[in-house]
Design a protein that fits this description.
Layout lengths: L1 H25 L3 H10 L4 H4 L2 H8 L14 E3 L6 E3 L18
Antiparallel strand pairs: 1-2
Length: about 100
Amino acid sequence: MRRILKYAIPALAIYLVLTAGLFEVMLQPPAVFGHVMSKLPMVSYYLFPFEPMWLVARRGRLRVGDMAPDFALKTVNCSAVVRLSSFRGSKPVALIFGSHT
């Protein structure tokens, strides 16, 4: 029993540190998260609780009635950059994600 504990406790500690590190990566911007995820071996997806951690990390803090955070996007023909805040107070804005055709 003592021999099992000798190896189980350090293994559990390493697992918890790796899980906490992965959660910290999930809190980073998408570019950082994607870069790290591209380096992880496929078996990692089975070893760590990805979905619950992802749902907590990306739940956001916006509530109904909150002002949308500002962001900038290129136009379809990449000729200009448009900021959401430039429309504030002037006209409604509809965001379409995915194909609009």
